[in-house]
Amino acid sequence: MEIRNSFDLVNIFIHASGVTIEVAFLSIIIAFIIGLICSIALYYKITVVKAIIYMYVEFFRNTPSLVQVYFVFYGLPKIFVKLDSFTCSVLVLSLLGGAYMCEAMYAGMKVISKNQRELAMAIGLSKFDTIRYLILPQTISISIAAINNNAIFLTKEVSVMKIILLPEIVYQAFAIISLRADLTVPIMILMIVSYLVILIPMSYGFSVLERKVRFAEFGD
Amino acid sequence: MQNLGIEYIIKAFPRLLDGFIVTIEISVSSLILSIFFGFIIGVLMTSKNKVVNFVLRIVLEAFRLIHPLIWLVVLFFGVTYAFNIQTDSMVVSLIVFTLWGTFEIGDLVRSYITSLPKSQFEASAAIGLTKIQMYVYVILPQIIIRSLPAIVNLATRLIKTTNLMFLIGVSEIMKVSQSIIQVVYYNNPNSYISFTMYFILLLVYFMICYPLSLFSKYLEKRFSVV
């Protein structure tokens, strides 16, 4: 894209922010689902599955996302499939986020007393209903703060995907600087501003959501 | 098996080790510096001076909301260009990761200090301790023990995040392994080296970070204040 005036520059960053938001949104949703399924499996202590999930969570929590994404983007095509950078970013971020979400939700589930589960069984709730009406609402209410933090963390982590050529904010900044060094300062400012424009409303929205969800716990 | 390229990795092992040492150097020195500055910033954050509080709050939010990668890029490219000075990529990474860690620890220390019962401050004033004596003998020893798990946790996060600095040209383990991969491809285009190399890197990071995270969990149990 040719840069004729500052409007073009802003336009590029708006598009880049769009990519960032898209990847972040998709991976937050998938990560939430992964985290939910994994934490329920951990809660019900399904023998083999539990060990696998434990390994998955610890592996993703203890390795850098940069190496993970390099492995999936450059390493896996050698033996398995070749993914494009968009799919690859969403895949890695969802798995990474899923590990963090699982940890957060499992910590919330552990707090629910065993009494409640026995009571649910006594009044004849099926397993699915127990999860739906008893465990889920409480878990989400307890761990909403951690879930929100993870979501913001994932959004920030999209910037790492620059290295696999996902056209997001940092990638565009690098691309423009390498062509037009004289634009360095405005680009730095635009880069920070676009992140703030994404993240400040997000963290405000999450704090509102947190107050709404924890209504049950605190009353008003 | 030939195509895995393990023999190249063994041959280049000393270089990998060099890169690894750079990673550890930056992580450890920024951890130590950020513990030192973190406690100072944490104490400053509890001060009643509105201006100090406001400025620290803004910087804290800036480092929270914006990824260290962005700060690295801004300091390395932006500052160089804007002020026309030579910046060393190692120094820039050290500054960014130290500031990042400082504000993480600072916020923690602030929350711990404000959660201490007020009677401790009043009692130390009553027995005639000066402000500095109060912090050194009464407040900080408790805070240090309580923040140990978080500090170990920060150490693992620093190790995981410092590999971003290869983007501004520090020749740490990531950069070294990329150059190994390039050399191997040059000699043998069908090699599986990128798979092997990154897999080994993942294992190396896991072997460092997993014990640390277990240690952090242990400390949390050991020092948890009920």
What labels would you give this structure?
heterodimer; A: about 220 residues; mainly alpha; MetI-like fold; elongated; B: about 230 residues; about 80% helix; about 0% strand
Folded structure, characterized:
The complex is a heterodimer of chains A (220) and B (226). With 220 residues, chain A is an all-alpha fold. Chain A has a single domain (6-215), classed as MetI-like (MetI-like fold). Helix content of chain A is 80%, strand content 0%. Chain A has 9 helices and no strands. In chain A, helix 1 runs parallel beside helix 8 (184-213), helix 2 packs across helix 4 and helix 7 packs antiparallel against helix 8. Chain B is mostly helical and 226 residues long. Chain B has a single domain, classed as Orthogonal Bundle (MetI-like fold), CATH 1.10.3720. Chain B is 81% helix and 0% strand. Chain B is built from 9 helices and no strands. Chain B has helices spanning 6-11, 13-45, 50-65, 68-83, 89-115, 118-126, 131-161, 173-187, 193-223. The radius of gyration of chain B is 22 Å and the shape is elongated. Chains A and B meet through helix 2, helix 3, helix 6, helix 7 and helix 8 of A and helix 4, helix 7 and helix 9 of B.
Quick overview of this protein structure:
The complex is a heterodimer of chains A (220) and B (226). With 220 residues, chain A is mostly helical.
Task: Show the helix and strand layout.
The complex is a heterodimer of chains A (220) and B (226).
Chain A: H1 6-43, H2 47-61, H3 65-75, H4 85-111, H5 114-122, H6 127-157, H7 169-179, H8 184-213, H9 215-218
Helix pairs in contact in A: 1-4, 1-6, 1-7, 1-8, 2-4, 3-4, 4-6, 6-8, 7-8
Chain B: H1 6-11, H2 13-45, H3 50-65, H4 68-83, H5 89-115, H6 118-126, H7 131-161, H8 173-187, H9 193-223
